[in-house]
Amino acid sequence: MSVGVEGEAVLRVGGAWVGLGKRAAARQLVVGRRRVVERPEVPARVISERLDRYLAGRVGRVAVMVEELGAGRSYRYHAGERMITASVAKVQILLGVLLRTRWKALPAGVRRDAERMIRYSDNHAADRLWERIGGVSGFDAVGRKFGLRDTRGVAGTCVDLYCWGITPTSVDDQVLLMGALVSKKGPLKEKDRARVLSLMGAVVDGQNWGVSAAACGGEGVVLKNGWLKRVSNKRWATASVGLIRSDGRDFALAVLSEGSPQVEYGIATVEGVAERVMRAFRNCPE
User: Fold this and answer.
1) pTM for this structure?
2) What is the pLDDT of residue 42?
3) Domain segments of the chain: what residues?
4) How many CA atoms lie within 13 A of 113 on its CB side?
5) Class of domain 43-278
């Protein structure tokens, strides 16, 4: 099942796409031996109008993408926007470390840096791992390995850190990267993917906002968030990327935003957008 460009639900039957209309009824999916009653398809136009209404009263730019991995259902909003990663870039830095050296072979100090970088968003640990992968050239090589098109590292030092925090990216690239963490076809070995997911699933309290706001009770969440005050305009970039996981279903989600007056404002925007999009993909139990 997918969503057509004009907002109608469409279903692939054989080699053709068949429109189901704008009020497609609930359907049953067979997942393994389970029957799951899925939320009716919500037209892309309805989701976009919902976001337009919410964001009309807020400042800043926002882009979001959700993909139900393996199911062919996705939604994009302002996907052409390019915004900075802030600390979301730390996931790609860690992938660069693991592409060079398997987790089990990493020195203890590097493992500690990886944990602090993801779980605590430690910037100096990220700087050390940035150097370990070769800076911009190594970072961009990771992007090419995972098929990213819009994410390019920035050379040099920004204030007292390397400039990985102002990496331009797109929601498409971030969703692609999240999908690779659960794909057997990706370049990372299974145990190393599991390690990344484990770290992203253990982000410390106070930094586990964002994607988690869109999860139903009982669903698992792995995520990495970013927040950065831009020197040029004193406005905040806030971003959240991750996976919502339940009963064999994985939703990859990325929300990027720039232009918030305070970090708390940006977090509220990111969470409000994530929740409004995800409610279109499934019903949360009462």
Assistant:
1) 0.86
2) 54
3) 1-41, 43-278
4) 21
5) alpha beta
